[in-house]
Amino acid sequence: MQNFESYNPTRIIFGKDTHVQVGMETAKYAKKVLLHYGGKSLKANGTYDVVVDSLQRAGIPFVELGGVKSNPRLSLVEEGIQLCREEQVDFILAVGGGSVIDSAKTIAVGACYDGDVWDFFSKGKMPEQTLPVGVVLTIPAAGSESSNGAVITREDTQEKRSFCSDIAYPVFAILNPALCYTLPKHQIAAGGADIMAHIMERYFSTEPHTDLSDHLCEATMCTLVQELPKVLVDVQDYDAWAEVMWTGNVAHNGLLGKGRIEDWASHGIEHEISAIYDIAHGAGLAIVFPAWMRYVSHICPSRFVQFAVRVFHVDLPMADTEAIVQEGIHRLESFFRSLGLETRLSEINIGREHFEAMGEKACNGGTLGGFQKLSPADVVKILELAL
Ligand code: NZQ
Ligand code: ZN
């Protein structure tokens, strides 16, 4: 097991009706708020009204900026930074999913920085100050509600890049599973694939003696595989949503990667796909992850056997390692397909025309991934396996 530090300061407020208290919670930090959200869903499902009412009852003035798109854009971030300065905002409340939260986190660091906020994404510059960010989560998926990262797309260069900093953890995140009842099936499925991927990025490690985090990862994956199909059958199944929402948080709050070298190659490759084709991040991961597994499983077959047996209960003769490995990957793909997701690029009309450029950008002058260090040529081969 590797040495590690553990730190996650986000207060999780979980359960029925919890979003009603967002005003009181925000009042602990804020004099003036930027209320940040996405497209139509928030107003259509009534969450916007509840949040606004709660802020008003707590006596907190706010300005608002909606319109965050999936794969959130730098241009709206810049608008948000400007607005925060003009309105002397000292707190950002993100109500939505990963895209809204990441946009909010980036506005928050940008508002405290004199230079170009893209410096944090392109030059490895670390932000030193931020406005505090609070979250009302409306979709379990990205885990950004208690992660230290943000992912932003710069439109003119089609670059999707991230920054990570401990100052980017939201101060609180409100998780009310009932807010998920209005999610479209495709978003539920894509969110589920992202949650699974966050666990697998940590699980596929060559680090020995990580039994506790192995078992935590496996329990988290088994819970997702068991509970997610239930919400696709009955979108108002509160108990199943509660499991999925908590699973989504645990998947990406940092706990599951402790003591091990994480991978993150599949995420790096997927970000190149969604940067160009603007697909849902989780939908891209359902395609990339199985291809990555097929490409790298020979590095440490025992880990893939453990995955197949403990997560998907593959019951083949233990001597037949390769068959077990392949069956585990096949069952993962079948799980994604059962959610309604595609598992090949060709099924979503993506061809190989940008593969070389994606490989170069994903590796960014170096290599990609912790399990096997991938070169641009390796990335191209994985993309070809995903076709
Ligand atoms: O825009 P609206 O109308 O609100 O619709 C949204 C959006 O179309 C809809 N939605 C959200 N909650 C809803 C709802 N519709 C009905 N009812 C609700 N309760 O869902 C759609 C997707 O929202 P989005 O925020 O884009 O989804 P997600 O949470 O999957 O976030 C994806 C982004 O997060 C990044 C991804 O790269 C992507 O850009 N990630 C961020 C990470 C982080 N910061 O730690 C880690 C992740 O690996 C990921 O890379
Ligand atoms: Zn992800």
Summarize the structure in words.
With 387 residues, the chain is an alpha/beta fold. The chain has two domains: 11-179, Rossmann fold, CATH 3.40.50.1970; 185-385, Dehydroquinate synthase-like - alpha domain (Dehydroquinate synthase-like, alpha domain). 48% of the residues lie in helices and 10% in strands. The chain has 15 helices and eight strands. The protein has helices at 22-27, 41-44, 47-57, 74-87, 98-110, 119-122, 185-203, 211-233, 238-252, 265-277, 281-296, 301-312, 321-338, 355-363, 376-385; strands spanning 11-14, 33-37, 62-65, 91-96, 133-137, 149-154, 159-164, 172-175. A six-stranded parallel sheet has the order 1-8-5-4-2-3. It has a two-stranded antiparallel ribbon with strand order 6-7. A hairpin with a 4-residue loop joins strand 6 (149-154) and strand 7. The radius of gyration is 20 Å and the shape is globular. Bound molecules: 5,6-dihydroxy-NADP and zinc ion. 5,6-dihydroxy-NADP (NZQ) is lined by residues 38-42, 45, 70-72, 96-100, 102, 138-139, 141-144, 147, 149-151, 179-180, 182-183, 187, 191, 194, 252, 267, 281-282.
